[in-house]
Design goal:
By secondary structure, the protein is of the alpha/beta class. Strands 1-9-8-7-2-6-3 form a seven-stranded mixed β-sheet. Strands 4-5 form a two-stranded antiparallel sheet. The model has no long low-confidence stretch (mean pLDDT 92).
């Protein structure tokens, strides 16, 4: 397993000349004149297990981020319209695509859901869809056939070509694009179930490996089809604790459902559950983070750096 030192080295790969570093208080001031559009009840409904999302975090971090994304989306739409006018073609503006990447348990799913709600409140981007790359995992039967069930979540466990085709359909302006549906309860793809995207203003794509480079130079990377990308970052030691805390919360919650794939863990003692969670983390999730996820951080347009309490303490925005 990679060492802790290797993990820390990977975290320090950002070139400071390429990013603006904006500390939390400075970033929060950008939202001083913005109205908070979400209620506390709405925020609670968006919050994932272990996330400490509250009104202050939304107002100070995610409200200005949603506005920045809305500005980018508007600028991209105008460039598309101007290009069509220059070419003397009909305006063929297509959805603005945002990628959200980061480790398991770092809170990226909550952030993606929150940005969907916030961006839909801005007048330029009222229709926002969210798609997770879980739907592009190979079905469990296929993972078993390939002998990689133990590497679920690693790049090779995804149907990358299907994901690229889905995003190609989105960016080419197809009337609709369809993504497979993944059930976390069943821990598998649901046959014949799909998520259909019909030319919204914005599509948010959330997943572990969305910033991965292409497997060969002549292939398209998933991130080539993004207009903006976000990496959610935190110290691996902090993420480890968040992963364990989430596993314990699931043991007392979703795992207790008889229909859950993970129901076998519901009767574990808390001590054994912690040991089990650390086993999963150290054998699967941490190696995947260090080998495949962290090295893509420098490809992001914006990095959200989280502190030990799950709150964002600084933002790094790409200059070029």
């Amino acid at each position: 397993m990679p060492s802790d030192a290797a993990a820390l080295d990977a975290r320090e790969q950002l070139n400071p000349q390429l990013y603006r570093e904006i500390l939390r208080p400075e970033w929060a001031r950008l939202a001083a004149d913005m109205r908070q559009p979400l209620t506390e009840t709405e925020i609670v409904s968006l919050r994932g297990l272990g996330d400490r999302l509250d009104l202050d975090e939304v107002r100070e971090v995610y409200l200005p981020l949603s506005r920045l994304l809305s500005l980018y989306a508007g600028a991209t739409r105008r460039i598309g319209a101007d290009t069509s006018a220059f070419l003397q073609e009909n305006d063929s503006t297509t959805p603005f695509v945002v990628g959200v990447a980061g480790s398991v348990a770092v809170g990226k799913s909550t952030i993606a859901r929150l940005l969907r709600e916030l961006m839909s409140r801005w007048p330029d981007t009222p229709r926002v869809e969210l798609v997770t790359t879980d739907g592009f995992l190979y079905p469990n039967a296929e993972l078993e056939r390939r002998g990689i069930m133990h590497r679920k979540g690693f790049p090779e466990s995804y149907d990358r070509r299907a994901l690229v085709q889905f995003l190609t359909d989105v960016k080419s302006g197809a009337p609709e694009a369809r993504a497979p549906f993944y059930s976390h309860m069943k821990y598998d793809i649901v046959p014949d179930a799909v998520i259909t995207v019909r030319r919204p203003d914005v599509v948010i794509v959330e997943g572990l490996n969305v910033l991965q480079p292409p497997p060969s130079p002549n292939e398209v990377a998933v991130s080539d089809l993004f207009d903006f990308s976000i990496y959610v970052d935190a110290d691996p030691e902090h993420i480890t604790q968040w992963f364990v805390d989430r596993f314990l919360a699931l043991k007392h919650g979703a795992f207790a459902d008889p229909g859950s794939f993970f129901n076998v863990f519901s009767d574990l003692t808390d001590e054994t559950a912690v040991e089990t969670a650390l086993g999963f983390w150290n054998e699967i999730n941490l190696p995947n983070l260090i080998e495949n996820v962290l090295p893509t951080k420098h490809r992001a347009t914006l990095v959200l750096q989280k502190a030990a309490n799950h709150a964002v303490d600084r933002v790094l925005l790409r200059k070029v």
